[in-house]
Amino acid sequence: MNSGDRGLGFPLGPTSVIQVTNLSSAVTSEQMRTLFGFLGDIEELRLYPPDNAPLAFSSKVCYIKFREASSVGVAQHLTNTVFIDRALIVVPCAEDD
């Protein structure tokens, strides 16, 4: 396993993006920005489905791009933190559009 592998089975170089899964269907993008904003400057945040989605979903996923890649390691420490009613799962994510 090479040093960029991180146990994922594919190389992942330095990234400033995280994927947050197992989110409550009640969570909003503003709540996510507030929670993760304490860990570093957020360049971009995308919540799926968005806050104004017409249909109800059982869970959501959020992608957060920090200004600095060092914030990703700090953010991963929030894995298993209960937020609203679910334990968050935070993983680094490749920086593709």
TrEMBL record:
Signal peptide: none annotated. GO terms for molecular function: RNA binding. GO terms for cellular component: nucleoplasm. Transmembrane segments: none annotated. Residues 20-83 form the RRM domain. It holds the Pfam family RRM_1. SUPFAM superfamilies: RNA-binding domain, RBD (SSF54928). This is RRM domain-containing protein. It comes from Cyanoderma ruficeps.
